[in-house]
From TrEMBL:
BP GO terms, sorted: base-excision repair, AP site formation via deaminated base removal
Matches recorded under InterPro entries: UDG_fam1, Ura-DNA_Glyclase_AS, Uracil-DNA_glycosylase-like, Uracil-DNA_glycosylase-like_sf
Listed SUPFAM superfamilies: Uracil-DNA glycosylase-like
Keyword Transferase appears in the UniProt entry: no
GO molecular function: uracil DNA N-glycosylase activity
Sorted UniProt keywords: DNA damage, DNA repair, Glycosidase, Hydrolase
Catalytic activity: Hydrolyzes single-stranded DNA or mismatched double-stranded DNA and polynucleotides, releasing free uracil
UniProt domain Uracil-DNA glycosylase-like: residue ranges: 47-207
HAMAP family, alphabetized: UDG
Protein name: uracil-DNA glycosylase
Species: Methanobrevibacter millerae
One Pfam family of this chain: UDG
Amino acid sequence: MIGNDWDSILNEEFEKEYFKEIMEFIEEEYSSKTVYPPKEEIFNAFKFTPASKVKVVILGQDPYHEEGQAHGLAFSTPEGRPIPRSLKNIFKEIEDEYNYPIPDSGCLEKWAKQGVFLLNTVLTVREGEANSHSDCGWQTFTDNVIKALNEQPQPIVFLLWGKQAEKKMELLENPNHLVLVTSHPSPFSARRGFFGCNHFRLANEYLRKNDIEEIDWKLSTTAQL
């Protein structure tokens, strides 16, 4: 399904009855309603970032539910689309930590290709209906994905932002990994801990300490083109 090592890691998962039911459900949803992201982009996070290459995990909730915004990577939007407010706050925190300029694009593919696994805990959503697919089984699947990452031998930094992401701490027991928790970057909660969390620097410090190449968090701006 995916085309890299995730296929062998998740092979048994894909054969389970609950996963087949998810596939049947979303097949019906895509055929009868407007659903995001585009069907061929549902597993983009997995396609861009093989399990063996994961260095940092950023957990989102469900995809953006407005036209053209979701493309299978948590918090990311395709080139040319408006930058959502939560992502703007992520960029503001990076600007504070590294003095990088705020980018013009919300596309985070550069991060994904470096080993930042941008996983939403629910992988699809109906247009205009946040959390509309939250009970179809996706969370069982992504919990098992997180468990698989917990078992990976390489040190991984997990960035858990907000109460929903924080619940996943119980799945992370491997002492090789670093788990960092703070509030969600949403405008409603960013000032409750996200701003000033220093997560991007702390993640890179942990990678460096473990002799793993750091993430270049800098994204392009018009001034750099």
